[in-house]
Amino acid sequence: MTIPLGNIPGSISAINQPQVAFISPAVSVDPTLKLEADAIDAYFAAHDMPLEGMGLKMAEEAEANDLDWRLLPAIAVRESTGGKFDCKKAENNPFGWGSCKISFKTLDETIETVAKNLGGNNPNTARHYDNKTTKQILNAYNPPSIVPRYAEQVLAIMKDIGREDMAAISSTVAANI
For the chain, which domains are there? Predict the structure, then answer.
């Protein structure tokens, strides 16, 4: 087909090509991860925090790195009020990672990096975090000699976000459906 361009010299030729639509299958989210993500996002929403919507990523990375699902959001709340007061000199760093000297391209990258490190899965930092309890991880992240009540503050935020045993809650919900 040729389309005349009025006073513009030339014309445009168009070829009819079939349109292909790709429909991706619905992604199924583990019910426990969904409950955890919803609790994280609800906490951020209730406190008008910019990290609302990152709950699923935080829950997934916590699970992948064998961390308490509430740890990442609680650290973000303690360090930057859930992204409200992010590091000034580092982009996408609501965790204060690297003393706010490290920028990240995206929040997803930040969450992945912090979770991998705190889970003891980065060979460069494993000696600080591998095989530690949540309180020991927090004491390594911000030692009491630097921030005396840091671990207790983050643990209190974790309790506010939700119960640790979301798997038990998920099983109860599933059994009642």
Answer: 31-170 (1.10.530.10)
